[in-house]
Amino acid sequence: MQTWEEIEKIQPVASRTIMNSINKNRISHAYLFQGDRGTGKKEMALLLAKYLFCMNRQGVNPCNNCINCQRIDSGNHPDMHWIEPDGASIKIEQVRNLQKEFTYSGMESNQKVYIIKDADTLTVNAANRLLKFLEEPSIETTAMMLTENGHAMLSTIRSRCQIIDLQPLAPGILQEKLQQEGLNEMDAKLLSVLTNSLTEALELAQDDWFAGARKIVIQWVEMYTTQPEDIYTYIHQYWIPHFKDRESQERGLDLLILGFKDILHQHIYTDANTILLSNDPSKLEKRLITFSQAQLLTILNQILMAKRKLKANVQPTLVIEQLALQIQR
Prior knowledge:
This protein is of the alpha/beta class and 329 residues long.
């Protein structure tokens, strides 16, 4: 998204709050963007960063063409620093390094910006170190923290930030927008359930990795009705090589949840439309015989538990092996 007007279409309150701050020349020294995955936290932070560095501003918007805008888009601006978890958390060494960078003069101006992704994963020591940084802000420094769980952060950090709440985009509205972009109804419906972001949904629609992930998950679910004895081999041959990092593993589990929800809905509603699985009558009958409603509820809870284990940095292969065996019981 290149302008605040584009963001306003999906986040009207949040975008207007930022635009009002820009118009009144009251940009905060620290922002906390909080909202579900895909609601536009990163896009808003980068757009604000571009505005701060832009050489040819167009009202409240950056020009998106100058060298500073281009370097922010490519992640190469020397005075904008991006921090994300090192493993499962953001560690004190990362905050120390950030503070060290800020002791130097800006490469091209006195303006400096830092963006912290998944700020709720700051360790206690890192959070306390960052707090001291926030307590003595430089006029030229702007901090932006992105999180899906703002309430997990220190209240003292929250109190020093202007909190920007991002609302989820209704799936029906997103599905309609995706179909307007040329996606078929089934793809648009699936993507509107997986993400609240139009940009992310369109990227996934063109992503070969996502197409492969979708195929792997569908085959895994269907194998429980046809070849359950081969599940363990299947996940080692296909799942583990394909889902290599925590973000992709969580995406895979989100797809798995949709697959088993499809079966549950087919138990409850005779005319249920599936989101991930096909409506092939022969496959439907096998699914309903294989899984009872009680089993499906248990399986969905087990998948959610697997997601929590991944967030707790439990070894991913072990998590998936255990899950596969739990579902089979």
